[in-house]
Write a structure and sequence with these properties.
With about 220 residues, the chain is mostly beta strands. The chain has a domain of about 90 residues. It is about 0% helix and about 30% strand. The strands form 5 sheets. A 5-stranded antiparallel beta sheet has the order 10-9-12-7-14. It has a 3-stranded antiparallel beta sheet with strand order 11-8-13, with no helix packed on it. Strands 1-4 form a two-stranded parallel sheet. It is rod-shaped. It starts with about 60 loop residues before the first strand and ends with a strand.
């Protein structure tokens, strides 16, 4: 074993170690470090500038106080606490739960079905089980035709909620289209004064959870 004084700095050239080595104090390395074997660290790694980890296996927790940019594939089987921004340029596979103190925005697969599952219909109220967006469109008939979107706190959004989006057409064959956000736990409803069917889609923020039909 090579034991260094706490204030010792090594600048004498290359050093080759073939056995186990333990450092009880700080180690300041000004040049490159090449390792053919494993590096086991029981404490923390502090990096003041950029770090390139091409093949690093971590059994414990990873705590990142700054930004972490990953340009290649990243596999996580343990916990990761992130206080800053994480940018993933490659594929990310999480084998454990993700807990975020800040907002994480990803869009899941859209659907035109409710939880039953059947195609969502106009004049039906639906409960949003997650944040998301509603899009709806219908072909107009002769006369003054509208497609309207309502959001509310009860299962009667068209009666007790707010009108949040509306499209109006007076020409047969024209398409009325609306889009609006709905927060998790809120109810939405599409009203269209046309005999034509309305096409309604749910666009979730996160993994898809189909809206719950209230009718």
């Amino acid at each position: 074993m090579l034991l260094l004084h706490p204030d010792k700095q090594w600048a004498g050239g290359d050093v080759t170690w073939q056995g186990a080595h333990e450092f009880d104090a700080s180690v300041d390395i000004s040049g490159n470090v090449g390792m053919d074997g494993d590096l086991t660290i029981d404490g923390k790694i502090a990096v003041d500038s950029s770090a390139d980890f091409s093949d690093v296996f971590v059994e414990g927790d990873i705590s990142v106080a700054g930004s972490l940019a990953v340009a290649t594939d990243f596999t996580l089987t343990g916990d990761m606490a992130v206080d800053g921004t994480v940018n993933f340029g490659g594929v990310v596979s999480f084998g454990a739960d993700i807990s975020a103190a800040a907002q994480v925005t990803t869009f899941g697969a859209n659907t035109n079905q409710d939880d039953e599952p059947t195609a969502m219909l106009k004049a039906h109220a639906y409960l949003a089980n997650q944040d998301g967006f509603v899009t709806a469109f219908a072909e107009a008939e002769a006369g003054n035709r509208t497609v309207s979107g309502y959001v509310g706190a009860t299962n009667d959004p068209a009666g007790a909620g707010d009108l949040v989006a509306q499209s109006n057409s007076k020409t047969t064959g024209e398409i009325d289209f609306i889009s609006f956000p709905v927060a998790s736990g809120k109810y939405f409803e599409i009203v269209a004064n046309t005999t034509n069917a309305a096409t309604i889609f749910w666009h979730p923020v996160g993994v898809l959870v189909k809206p719950t039909d209230q009718d």
